[in-house]
Specification:
CATH topology of one domain: Rossmann fold
CATH architecture of one domain: 3-Layer(aba) Sandwich
Order of helices and strands: EHEHEHHEHEEHEEEHEEHEHH
Shape: globular
CATH superfamily of one domain: NAD(P)-binding Rossmann-like Domain
Bound molecules: NADP nicotinamide-adenine-dinucleotide phosphate
Number of helices: 10
Helix content: 40-55%
Radius of gyration: 19 Å
Distance between the termini: 43 Å
């Protein structure tokens, strides 16, 4: 089937990634918000998927509040794990590519200051990441045509999205002479636009399996990330390193969420560029939107 005649169904279509996937993906796309398709409703999932008959499902919907998941494990497993199972059940024995957006946060704590690759053992430490990993296992044990994409700290969303970390830090820096950020956790700030391009490459080259999908970043902490955001917005604000007591988290997140696109590199199809280049481009776009407001 040619690329352009493929129909892609996107879950979580009002989320930060889902909204932008709908805008950016170059196939015919139909998106469903949580109100239109609650993925934890198994009957509704089957009915809706049968009526739409997609060639590809990109499953972005999730209970994404990592802190809240700790206090609500039932909800986390219901949406993130069972919700995925409901979609997978429909795909079994059908010629559908199932694309699951996972997280580099699932790797856990086995490595310090070294990027995880796809062959590393997975040891999630939080309820959120455990529920995402259980979903990965369900996909792997029931489907052949799947992509599990473990991505990093996403940026590139619209201003109104609650998960828009970049815009939130801009507002904070605009309104304060100094702000604080955590220097203890490393990861990969990752552009939604680059991720969507990479998804299209993986589809084009008929790739299946698990892939890290992050922008290149070498030992970048949240603090480094926030400093770069403030610098690019040219805010008159100093970013200081937060001490241990300032950002107490309910979720025992790993200090190392950083990953490398080991498999994409081995296959010579890694299109994910350096995070700073993509962040700069995104912030230029945001600045224009802010000026137009
Ligand atoms: N943002 C990141 O830095 C990051 C990093 C790694 C991986 N990811 C993964 O990327 C995906 C997208 O994340 P995001 O940043 O776009 O998060 P988001 O903005 O919170 O989007 C998640 C979406 O899922 C929807 N949803 C929640 N419960 C649902 C349910 N029961 N049925 C259907 N939809 C439901 C939400 O709808 P409502 O708003 O209406 O509840 C929302 O539209 C997630 O799978 C996440 O785990 C994100």
């Amino acid at each position: 089937m040619s690329g352009t005649s493929m129909k892609v169904l996107i879950t979580g279509a009002n989320g930060m990634l889902g909204t932008n996937l709908m805008k950016l993906i170059s196939y015919e796309a139909i998106g469903f918000t949580s109100k239109e398709l609650d993925v934890s409703d198994s009957k509704k999932c089957i009915e809706l998927l049968e009526s739409k008959n997609p060639n590809i499902i990109i499953h972005t919907a999730a209970y994404t509040n990592v802190e809240d998941c700790e206090g609500n494990p039932k909800k986390a497993y219901k949406i993130n794990t069972i919700g995925t199972q409901n979609l997978v059940n429909y795909c079994i024995n059908k010629d559908i590519l199932f694309i699951y957006i996972s997280s580099t946060g699932i790797y856990g704590t086995k490595k310090e200051n070294i990027h995880y690759n796809e062959f590393d053992e997975v040891n999630p430490t939080t309820i959120h990441h455990k529920s995402k990993y259980e979903a990965e296992k369900i996909i792997q044990s029931h489907l052949c045509k799947y992509l599990i994409l473990r991505t990093g700290w996403l940026f590139g969303g619209d201003i109104q999205h609650n998960k828009n970390f970049v815009y939130k830090r801009y507002l904070e820096a605009k309104n304060n002479r100094e702000i604080y950020s955590d220097n203890s956790q490393i990861g990969n700030p990752t552009s939604i636009k680059d991720l969507v391009k990479q998804i299209e490459i993986l589809i084009k080259y008929n790739q299946y399996g698990i892939f890290n999908c992050v922008n290149e970043a070498k030992n970048i902490s949240r603090y480094d990330y926030v400093r770069k955001i403030v610098e690019l917005f040219e805010c008159n604000c100093e970013v200081k390193v937060a001490d241990d007591t300032m950002f107490k988290r309910a979720a025992p997140v790993s200090k190392n969420e950083s990953a490398e696109n080991f498999k994409l590199n081995l296959l010579k199809i890694n299109k994910m560029i350096n995070w700073e280049i993509s962040l700069k481009e995104y912030i230029e776009k945001l600045k224009m939107e802010i000026n137009e407001k």
